[in-house]
Amino acid sequence: MEKLKLLVSQQEIEKAIGRIAEELKRDYRDQPPLLVGVLKGAFVFMADLIRALDIPVEIEFVKLSSYGTKTKSSGKIRVVQGLRSPIRDRDVLVVEDIVDTGLTIHFLLDYLAKKKPRSLKLCALLDKPSSRQIDLAIDYKGMEIPDVFVVGYGIDYNEKFRYLPEIYYLEETS
Ligand code: 5GP
Hints:
six-stranded mixed beta sheet, globular, 33% strand, alpha/beta
């Protein structure tokens, strides 16, 4: 049995997105970016983020698969669904739900960099700095969280809990 414990409220999520949106508006006002969302977990964050921006962004999605267990990434990652349009000379902003070990996003940034965008930056709602296995700069960050397994706000456990408007952590109960 899993028990859900509230970690981040709707209000805290809104506040973090509002702050990121202000930073993005400041940095991309004259060069509207192409936002690349990482499926599936980032789709809710992406939807709220683009509506908090009042600049004409374009969006794309990529889907990755990791050969890890349900709760830990193995670092062996592959692209399941790639980009549908070229990103050469575009200002690309990757939108991710969680940076944990950093291996997934490191792989994706490498994959995108080879396509020669004009600029490539990373925006992540949640950061678990204590689990990091690779040095990585998060250019726009929602908030840091402890090393717990979270669900809700688009983020799942076995496809469950994505619909929840807040972010919870899972506590194992027997
Ligand atoms: P990393 O490669 O940085 O270890 O892991 C990144 C990916 O692992 C995230 O995009 C997410 O899909 C998944 N992940 C990491 N931590 C969590 C978590 O607490 N909950 C869920 N549901 N997925 C996580």
